[in-house]
C-alpha cells in the first residue's frame, strides 16, 4: 500500500515539475533584446576648422546596420548588457558655401561631405514592458571621410565618438544620437566663410585662402552632428 501511495505521489509531482520548468522557461524568454537593428536617419552636421566660421549642413542622411552581442543577462532578462557593432555606417552632409574672391565678389556653391565606417562599443537594453524597449549605446567610430567641391575630392581617416538612445515598440522605434570628432585633410579646397553672423566679418576682404596648406601639413577639421532615426529591430 505504501508503495502504491509513493508511486502516486511521484506521478503527481511530474506534471507540477514540468509546469514549473515551463513557467521558468517562459520567464526567461519573456523579455527579449534584438540582435540586429537598422537605422535610417536625418543627419544634421556642423563642420568647422580653427579660425573660420562653422558650416551648418542644409540637409543630410545616414544609414547604419547594428548587431548586438549580449554578454550579460540577469535572470529576468529585463536588462541586457553587451557589445554593439555597426559593420555599416554611412553619413552624408550637404553644405552651401559662400566663396569670397579677391575682387570682392561672392560665389555660392555646394560642398558635399560624407564618411563610411564602422562602430564598436557598449550597448545596453532595458525592457520597460514586453514590447517596449529602451536601448542606449556609446561607440568608437573610425571612418574614411571625404570632401567634394569644385571638382576636387579630398579624403582622410576620421575618428568619431557616437552616443545615442532609442525607444522601440516591438520592431519599430525612434532614436537620436550624437557624433563628434574630426579628420585631417591635406586641403579642404574651399574658402570657408560660412553663414552670415554678427561676428563673421563677412565684408572684410579675404587675404589668405582658408582651408588650404602651403607647407605640406594637414588641416585639422571637426564635425559635430545630430541624427534623428527611424529604427527597425530584429
Give a quick set of tags describing it.
single chain, mainly beta, 12% helix, 234 residues, 8-stranded antiparallel beta barrel, 1 helix, Porin
What report would you give on this structure?
The chain has 234 residues and is mainly β. It has one domain (31-233): Porin (Beta Barrel). It has 1 helix and 9 strands. The chain has one helix spanning 2-30; strands at 36-49, 55-56, 59-72, 79-100, 106-127, 132-149, 152-169, 172-185, 219-233. A hairpin with a 4-residue loop joins strand 5 and strand 6 (132-149). It is elongated and about 70 Å long. Residues 9-28 and 190-210 have low confidence and may be disordered.
Q: How many runs of DSSP E, i.e. beta strands?
A: 9
- Rg computed from alpha carbons, rounded to a whole number of angstroms: 27 Å
Q: In terms of per-residue confidence, which ranges show pLDDT below 50 for 5 or more consecutive residues?
A: 9-28, 190-210
How many DSSP H or I helices?
1
Number of domains: 1
End-to-end gap: 57 Å
Q: Work out the helicity level.
A: 10-25%
Give the integer mean of the pLDDT values.
Answer: 82
Overall form:
elongated
So what's the CATH class? Answer: Mainly Beta
By CATH, the architecture is named Beta Barrel
Share of β-strand residues: over 45%
The succession of helices and strands, N to C, reads HEEEEEEEEE
Strand order of the largest sheet: 1-3-4-5-6-7-8-9
CATH topology: Porin
Largest sheet features:
8 strands, antiparallel, barrel
Structural class: mainly beta
Secondary-structure blueprint:
Blueprint: H1 2-30, E1 36-49, E2 55-56, E3 59-72, E4 79-100, E5 106-127, E6 132-149, E7 152-169, E8 172-185, E9 219-233
Antiparallel strand pairs: 1-2, 1-3, 1-9, 3-4, 4-5, 5-6, 6-7, 7-8, 8-9
Amino acid at each position: 500500500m505504501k508503495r502504491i501511495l509513493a508511486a502516486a505521489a511521484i506521478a503527481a509531482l511530474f506534471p507540477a515539475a514540468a509546469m514549473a520548468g515551463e513557467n521558468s522557461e517562459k520567464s526567461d524568454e519573456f523579455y527579449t533584446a534584438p540582435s540586429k537593428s537598422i537605422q535610417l536617419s536625418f543627419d544634421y552636421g556642423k563642420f568647422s576648422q580653427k579660425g573660420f566660421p562653422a558650416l551648418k549642413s542644409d540637409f543630410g542622411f545616414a544609414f547604419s546596420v547594428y548587431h548586438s552581442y549580449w554578454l550579460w543577462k540577469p535572470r529576468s532578462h529585463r536588462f541586457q548588457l553587451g557589445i554593439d557593432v555597426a559593420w555599416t555606417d554611412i553619413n552624408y552632409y550637404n553644405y552651401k558655401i559662400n566663396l569670397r574672391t579677391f575682387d570682392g565678389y561672392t560665389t555660392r556653391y555646394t560642398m558635399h561631405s560624407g564618411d563610411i565606417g564602422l562602430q564598436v562599443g557598449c550597448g545596453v537594453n532595458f525592457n520597460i514592458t514586453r514590447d517596449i524597449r529602451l536601448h542606449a549605446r556609446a561607440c568608437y567610430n573610425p571612418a574614411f571621410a571625404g570632401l567634394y567641391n569644385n571638382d576636387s575630392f579630398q579624403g582622410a581617416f576620421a575618428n568619431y565618438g557616437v552616443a545615442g538612445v532609442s525607444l522601440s515598440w516591438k520592431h519599430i522605434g525612434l532614436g537620436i544620437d550624437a557624433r563628434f570628432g574630426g579628420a585631417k585633410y591635406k586641403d579642404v579646397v574651399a574658402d570657408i566663410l560660412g553663414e552670415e553672423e554678427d561676428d563673421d566679418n563677412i565684408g572684410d576682404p579675404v587675404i589668405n585662402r582658408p582651408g588650404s596648406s602651403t607647407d605640406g601639413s594637414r588641416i585639422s577639421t571637426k564635425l559635430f552632428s545630430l541624427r534623428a532615426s527611424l529604427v527597425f529591430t530584429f
